[in-house]
Amino acid sequence: MHSYASMEQERNDRRGDKRGDERGDEAPDRPRQSGDEIDENLKRVYSRLLEEGVPDRFQKLLEELRRKDPGK
Question: What is the pTM of this model?
Fold first, then answer.
């Protein structure tokens, strides 16, 4: 009887899946990013989101909710 893991490995081998390899989950022509690069990219994206602000329709909704329940 085959274990689930061995069956999964056989299936991946047939497909040419290299998940067990060091770079198997990445495109071969794309270099691996370091943790520092990933951190910087995430910070940049997050900063851009903060700069966008809250959309007008959400601002209006918040104003309506505050008028309906001023105690909160």
Answer: 0.36
